[in-house]
Write a structure and sequence with these properties.
The complex is a heterodimer of chains A (about 500) and B (about 300). Chain A has about 500 residues and is α+β, with helices and mostly antiparallel strands. Helices cover about 45% and strands about 15% of the residues of chain A. Among the domains of chain A are: about 30-155 and about 325-360, Periplasmic binding protein-like II (D-Maltodextrin-Binding Protein, domain 2, 3-Layer(aba) Sandwich); about 155-215 and about 250-320, Periplasmic binding protein-like II (D-Maltodextrin-Binding Protein, domain 2). Chain A is built from 20 helices and 19 strands. In chain A, strands 2-1-3-16-6 form a 5-stranded mixed beta sheet. In chain A, strands 9-13-8-14 form a 4-stranded mixed beta sheet. Chain A has a 3-stranded mixed beta sheet with strand order 7-15-19. In chain A, a hairpin with an 8-residue loop joins strand 10 and strand 11 (about 230). Chain B has about 300 residues and is an all-alpha fold. Chain B is flat and about 70 Å long. In chain B, helix 4 (about 75-105) packs across helix 8, helix 5 runs antiparallel to helix 8 and helix 10 (about 210-235) runs antiparallel to helix 14 (about 275-300). Chain B has a two-stranded antiparallel sheet with strand order 1-2. Chain B is built from 14 helices and 2 strands, in the order ααββαααααααααααα. Classes of the chains: A alpha+beta (about 500), B mainly alpha (about 300). Chains A and B meet through helix 3, helix 18 and helix 19 of A and helix 3 and helix 13 of B.
């Protein structure tokens, strides 16, 4: 045996011993086998700095001997991607689900998610303690809990944003809108902008992806594209067709009037958003997805840093749709749901873990300011801070620069004081009317944007819309929704 | 099988082993990607439950198909699919054939330049083409409306709300993107024609046009027929990107732009359902199959030798 080989062998022996010792030590620390958690999310990745942040996350996960992999798909393709993953039976652990992307009820009904009832008590003590019970009610289907609602703002209020410089210039009093919730009250402002500002300025950023809201006050049962809503103040829970409701007609006529007057861009019906125009300072006023405490910071950012009025234009209500608007489900194909849930519980219990996932690493991706708020460090390569609602408990997020220090207290307060929709706790089962839902979706997909942006003449197009809704089975959907609600109420 | 036949099969297998080997990869791919997935033909008739798996899911008869015919818009979509594709296929055929014949007459150095220029748009995705079209047709700052204004035209055309010009717009966008591809196919076939025909005909005093009509086109026709049949077979799987991204999914244009694919996409986008999607796919396949058989039958009647099968 040559000297070299002998040397090699002895090194190998030493290494083996070392590894064995390490493994032994590990086994003493925790009795858990190493496990790799795969989490599908939508939106923010890939981030150039993801590798180093994940390395840090994995350090934090050492107590449960797990490593994390987050796979992200953009909003447009998430549903298709997840359907492929699910129908291929690919093993994964966690995924994002909601009422708008990878629809919760339909996907859970297809058997893709694991029922969590038997796991929660053992593996998710913090979540059970933190999450209000109403959240569990919304995530239940026939008694089985199929997802964990992410803790964030659950009270829904509509918002409207007006650029401060412009409103002040024309002496527009925003309290009129805030008091009446009536969108028609901003008409004088729009007219003044149209008459006096340069033609490049768009008086109202109304487009397909961002409608205006005027006193609808209803809970949508199967999403915005499906007929069937219950008025929030209606304890009898009578299902009505929102497309024939006077609020819809009012908004539609208002939009048409504004479109003809030139307050709205002519191709509004094909624009998904107007962020680029907003950033460039070309949009004077715009609807807001949802009004929330601290939301003015985001709105200001979207308006290119210009000061704004952020006006709440509806009463806050807690609806099923809001409760299930961001959730995380455990896959039925998970190889180790226990560990996935232990990890998810950690997101609720460990501020450090939550903020590492959303903000990255301290002093690399974000830093603390003197007042205790955090601000992101630009171009650090990792920042998913605006996607905090996707990861468990948003109230764990450090308060960001510009947000009020008590933003989460305000939000919790809003959640607690908001009136609850009469439908909370009821879940809609779309299965019996799947054919009608598909047919009606095709109809609303065609007309809704056109009518609500004012792009077409309601005189001729609206009757056409209603006739097609009828033909596609809108009435049957409403009857089925009513039947399910009545059965649920009778059982209470 | 008789002993003799067995012997012959073995004999032939050995004899043609080279050719069989050559065919093997293609045949295997065809088997894997075209024949094996046919098991999926049961999916439209089932209520898919991922927990049970495809085979064990419950049978539901034709319920997955009903959504297609519930609203009545499917007929509009079918009509648009047929009309628009007839336009696309015929114009592509004529334009690319003409271009190929012209290129054939040019010196070979210029041909490369032209070919590259024609071929580049083929590699763009429909999303990009959609934005190129939008740059032309944006109602406020689009090139077309600005040009019209500078020529003194008052008022503007709100392109994405008025459907009447969209059959032409879609055709132009499609031609711009795809003509290069077909031109190259036809050009390559032209290169394969024996020079002798042309020499002989010019000795007999045939002009360029006569050569084109009596030599080039007849000799190209098998390729033309095959390519056209292939395109017709895919009609019902219309080019989704063309019909979705180029008109920017504007509801006001559906009267002419809504095809089966966009209709199904819109129906199931919010409530995805494997059974219903598969049902739509099966209908499209069957319709495509019928169309191919019909076209082939027509070709067969006109000229039996040119038919594909």
């Amino acid at each position: 045996m040559s000297k070299r080989i002998r040397k090699l062998l002895s090194t190998a022996l030493a290494l083996t011993l070392l590894l064995a010792a390490a493994a032994f030590a590990q086994a003493e620390n925790t009795e858990l086998e190493p496990y790799h958690i795969k989490w599908y999310i939508t939106g923010p990745m890939p981030q150039p700095g993801a590798d180093r942040v994940m390395a840090r996350v994995n350090e934090l996960l050492e107590p449960i001997n797990a490593t994390l992999e987050m796979v992200s798909t953009d909003f447009g393709n998430y549903v298709q991607k997840m359907q492929l993953v699910i129908s291929a039976g690919e093993p994964f652990d966690l995924c994002y689900t909601s009422n708008w992307s990878l629809p919760f009820y339909a996907t859970a009904n297809s058997g893709a998610f694991l029922a969590l009832n038997d796991y929660l008590e053992t593996y998710c003590p913090t979540i059970l303690e933190t999450l209000p019970s109403v959240g569990w009610t919304a995530a239940s289907i026939h008694g089985g809990i199929y997802a964990i609602p992410n803790l964030q703002i659950w009270a829904k209020a509509e918002g409207f944003v007006i650029r401060k410089d412009i409103a002040d210039k024309y002496g527009f009093d925003v309290s009129v809108l805030a008091d009446t919730y009536d969108m028609a009250t901003i008409e004088p402002l729009l007219a003044a902008i149209q008459a006096n500002e340069s033609p490049e300025i768009i008086p109202i950023g109304l487009c397909a992806g961002r409608g205006i809201y005027s006193n609808h006050n209803h809970e949508e049962i199967g999403g915005p594209q499906l007929p069937g809503v219950v008025k929030l103040y209606d304890d009898t829970c009578t299902v009505i067709n929102q497309f024939t409701d006077e609020a819809f007609v009012y908004t539609m006529n208002l939009a048409r009037d504004w479109y003809l007057k030139g307050y709205v861009v002519p191709d509004a019906a094909v624009l998904g958003d107007m962020y680029a125009q907003q950033k460039a300072g070309l949009v004077a006023t715009t609807g807001e997805g949802a009004w929330k405490p601290g939301g003015d910071v985001v709105a200001k950012q979207q308006m290119g840093g210009r000061d704004i009025y952020d006006i709440r234009v509806s009463d806050p209500y807690m609806t099923n749709a809001m409760l299930i608007s961001t959730m995380t489900a455990v896959s039925a194909t998970s190889q180790n749901p226990e560990r996935a849930l232990m990890f998810y519980d950690m997101i609720f219990s460990s501020k450090e873990l939550y903020n590492t996932i959303t903000l990255g690493m301290e002093n690399v991706d974000y830093k603390f300011n003197e007042d205790g708020t955090a601000s992101t460090i630009p171009n650090s390569g990792y920042d998913v801070s605006t996607y905090g609602w996707e990861f468990g408990n948003q109230f764990n997020q450090y308060v960001m620069e510009g947000q009020p220090l008590d933003v989460w207290e305000q939000t919790i307060e809003l959640n607690n004081t908001a009136k609850a929709s009469p439908l909370i706790g009821w879940t809609f089962d779309p299965e019996p009317i799947a054919a009608e839902i598909a047919a009606v979706s095709a109809v609303t997909g065609e007309y809704n944007r056109l009518l609500l942006t004012g792009s077409v003449d309601p005189e001729t197009v609206y009757p056409e819309f209603l006739a097609k809704l009828d033909a596609a089975g809108a009435q049957k959907i409403i009857e089925e929704e009513q039947r399910q609600i009545d059965a649920w109420k009778a059982g209470q | 099988m008789s002993r003799r036949a067995k012997h012959e099969l073995w004999h032939n297998t050995v004899k043609f082993r080279g050719i069989l080997l050559l065919a093997a990869p293609g045949a295997l791919l065809l088997l894997a990607f075209s024949y094996m997935p046919m098991i999926g033909v049961i999916i439209p008739f089932k209520k898919i439950d991922y927990a049970k798996g495809i085979l064990a899911s419950d049978w539901v008869g034709l319920t997955n198909f009903t959504f297609l015919f519930r609203g009545g818009d499917i007929w509009r979509a079918a009509r648009n699919t047929l009309i628009q594709n007839a336009l696309l296929i015929s114009t592509t055929l004529v334009v690319s054939l003409c271009l190929a014949l012209i290129l054939y007459e040019l010196s070979s150095r210029m041909v490369k330049t032209y070919m590259t220029m024609l071929f580049v748009p083929y590699f763009l995705s429909w999303v990009v083409v959609g934005y190129v079209v939008y740059a032309f047709l944006n109602p406020s700052i689009g090139i077309v409306n600005r040009l019209m204004r500078s020529f003194g035209q008052v008022g503007r055309i709100n392109w994405y709300v008025e459907p009447k010009r969209w059959r032409a717009i879609l055709t132009i966008a499609y031609l711009w993107k795809n003509v290069g591809y077909f031109t190259i196919l036809y050009y390559a076939s032209l290169m394969g024609i024996d020079e002798g025909y042309y020499e002989a005909s010019s000795i007999d005093g045939a002009g360029k046009l006569q050569q084109i009509f009596h030599i080039s086109i007849p000799l190209l026709s098998p390729v033309v027929i095959m390519l056209t049949l292939l395109q017709i077979g895919k009609i019902f799987f219309s080019d989704f990107g063309l019909f979705y991204f180029v008109p920017k999914n504007s509801g006001a244009l559906y009267a002419v732009t809504d095809v089966i694919d966009t209709y199904v996409f819109r129906s199931l986008q919010m409530s995805p359902n494997l059974g219903m999607t598969a049902a739509a796919g099966l209908c499209q396949t069957v319709a495509g199959f019928i169309l191919v058989m019909l076209t082939n039958a027509v070709v067969h009647r006109l000229d039996a030798e040119r038919a594909l099968f």
